[in-house]
Amino acid sequence: MPSRENALPREILTRALSIRQPFVEQILLGEKTEEYRSGRTHIRGRVYLYAGKKVAPVDGYPDEEAQRLPRGVIVGSVAILGCHEKKDCFAWELARPRRYGKPLAAFGVPQPGFWYPTFCVVPERK
């Protein structure tokens, strides 16, 4: 049974951004500061980071290591500062990543981009 202390996130945000591992891990480490997407975003501010269930192949990142990273959960948050156009895509500018002590299970339907997670507290039995 989850403890009440870890049942809800400490920061209450509206949106979650789905990104595959190991990209989420690279964001949390501060190594990845741009997320490349086919569309522009006007969203600014902090969003939850949801580690998608699938693993993306990344040059220089061993697949067996990526398979051990948390997936299908919210692992932290990141600030979206801006968006600029690249040659063939848009770069969403990411900053100030924050890793949560424990991944959070959220309800809702994770989407490839932004989605709206919900959380609930399971009452403790006496």
CATH topology of the domain at 18-105: Archaeosine Trna-guanine Transglycosylase, Chain: A, domain 4
Q: Strand order of the main beta sheet, please?
A: 2-5-4-3-1-6
Helix content: 10-25%
CATH architecture of the domain at 18-105: Roll
Give me the CATH superfamily of the domain at 18-105: Hypothetical protein
Summarize the biggest pleated sheet: 6 strands, mixed
How would you classify the helix and strand content by structural class?
Answer: mainly beta
Number of strands: 6
Order of helices and strands: HEHEEHEEE
Note the beta-strand portion: 35-45%
- Helical segment count: 3
CATH top level of the domain at 18-105 is Mainly Beta
The rounded distance between the terminal residues' Cα atoms is 12 Å
Overview of the molecule:
By secondary structure, the chain is mainly beta. It has three helices and six strands. It has helices at about 5, 25-30, 65; strands at about 15-20, 35, 45-55, 75-85, 90-105, 115. The protein has a domain at about 20-105: Roll (Archaeosine Trna-guanine Transglycosylase, Chain: A, domain 4).
Task: Spell out the key features of this protein.
3 helices; mainly beta; six-stranded mixed sheet; disordered N terminus; Archaeosine Trna-guanine Transglycosylase, Chain: A, domain 4; 126 residues; single chain; globular
